[in-house]
């Protein structure tokens, strides 16, 4: 009697560890009579299924859950690129060109925080030799004329009362004009341009070093605010923008996207959609960089029926088909080809290939797929 009780307990534990019989979307059984579990441990059986002992399942942290039919928002994957907010970023360029000199705080580097109006560098302008010699000759001529005009004013002041007042005033006006011309040309010979930050933010890229000679319109620095970033996606469907309810970035769970605008003019055959990137935890740190190519998952206002699973439940078979692993026994897992759509950065919805109430691997599927 005691032996019968023990055997009954073992049978009950085995049935509790096993999952519902694996079946396809139309109720057909996926188990085959030829598939016999191997006692050697981890192994791939002739029918493509995998035998994973219980001890190995614990070591690989295999987790499963019952797949149930439900409704989820239909989603579309869009190619996109991270761009800077035009109101919170800017380029630092020189107007004329010259040799780079350091400012009072030295040259900034990538990652440094700067404020609007802060001097980032100094550009010393250098004219061509022929033009420079002409300016110096003109400056020498003006200096001589100024000295003559200054002596004439002094003589006229000494004769004040005997010469008309208007002659003294005319001489003084001429002297002031020569002084202004001399100062303007003298300042132009050693002119320097202070390159200032157009906005507050972080130096995204620095393209200068001390002594470098830059040309007009060369980009010296790029400044952006890391807390204000946009994502520009493209689509060929003009009606997609009106159906977007939410959006995320694939494989980037910490970022939430808000649609702020959609273009109405085709650009290379597609329409641009502009999203504002917001950190999901409310902080200002976004795990994306300017210029980074990403994939936007745009959730539609329409719903689709399927099985919602974690994104890591999907693997690829040798034919590069997407599959999920179904647990058909205590130690046996069967690969089942499916069709799916991404819902967000962490979830997918299986629309074809999976039956209701199958126990699907939701953690460790990639490890099971590597067993040979």
TrEMBL record:
<feature type="signal peptide">
    <location>
        <begin position="1"/>
        <end position="18"/>
    </location>
</feature>
<protein>
    <submittedName>
        <fullName>HlyD family efflux transporter periplasmic adaptor subunit</fullName>
    </submittedName>
</protein>
<keyword id="KW-0813">Transport</keyword>
<dbReference type="GO" id="GO:0030313">
    <property type="term" value="C:cell envelope"/>
</dbReference>
<dbReference type="GO" id="GO:0060003">
    <property type="term" value="P:copper ion export"/>
</dbReference>
<dbReference type="InterPro" id="IPR051909">
    <property type="entry name" value="MFP_Cation_Efflux"/>
</dbReference>
<dbReference type="GO" id="GO:0015679">
    <property type="term" value="P:plasma membrane copper ion transport"/>
</dbReference>
<keyword id="KW-0732">Signal</keyword>
<feature type="region of interest" description="Disordered">
    <location>
        <begin position="20"/>
        <end position="47"/>
    </location>
</feature>
